[in-house]
Amino acid sequence: MIENVMFIVQGTIEATGLIGFSLAIARRPINWARTLLVAAVLAILSYTIQSLSFFFGFHTILIMFLIMLYLTKVGQITIVKGFLMISISAVVLGTLEFLSNSVFFNSSNINPQDVVSNQFLWALMGIPQAVIILLLAILISRIFKPIQ
After folding, report:
1. What confidence category does residue 148 fall into, taking pLDDT thresholds of 50, 70 and 90?
2. 39 neighbors 19 (Cβ within 8 angstroms)
3. Taking the CB of residue 112, how many other CB atoms lie within 10 A of it?
4. Which of 64, 30, 67, 16 is nearest to 144 (CA)?
5. CB contact at 8 A, 72 and 79
6. HSE (CB half, 13 Å, CA atoms) of 58?
7. Mean pLDDT, rounded, of the chain
8. What are the CA-CA distances from residue 49 to residues 64, 82, 88, 126 (Å)?
9. How confident is the model at residue 142 (pLDDT cuts 50, 70, 90)?
10. C-beta separation of 126 from 14 below 8 A
């Protein structure tokens, strides 16, 4: 049960960061309460899809598509720009995940397979990059003010 909650919490932070980062680099205003609510729904949807027997990565493609639609509606940007913004955000998140995991595994004596097989630890491993992309979204939105 705690593993399920951890995946949803981590997914909510991550999706909030992805949406916020996408809106920030598009220089659109961010309604953090709405973003958090949408992120929580996306995290639950993502966890549900991961639990089913869809092909690997399907949840990522679907969530990115839904975020792109959200960006076009709320951010009032074109579909192409929405696709570009979520793609850039996903690359940044992937880079943060790689760096975070590399630092963790290189500085500890923990076998990566042990972490992957433990759902609680695996969800916990996703928190650092989720928090970092969220902080980057906040920082970028403060430095580069939204265009009204």
Report:
1. low
2. yes
3. 11
4. 30
5. yes
6. 11
7. 90
8. 13, 23, 23, 18
9. very high
10. yes
Joined together, the tokens standing for residue 94 give 């992937």
Scan for tokens 């549900």, then name that residue: 48
Helices (H), strands (E): how many in the chain?
Answer: 7, 0
What distance in Å separates the CA atoms of residue 74 and residue 78, rounded to the nearest whole number?
11
3-state percent helix, strand, coil for the chain, nearest multiple of 5: 80, 0, 20
Task: Fill in the DSSP letter of residue 57.
Answer: T
Q: Show the tokens assigned to 35.
A: 């973003």
Of the chain, the percentage scoring pLDDT greater than 70 comes to: 98
Q: Which residue has the higher pLDDT, 1 or 26?
A: 26
Site of tokens 């850039």: 88
Q: Quick one: angle between helices 32-51 and 58-74, nearest 10?
A: 160
Two structure tokens written together for 85: 């913004």
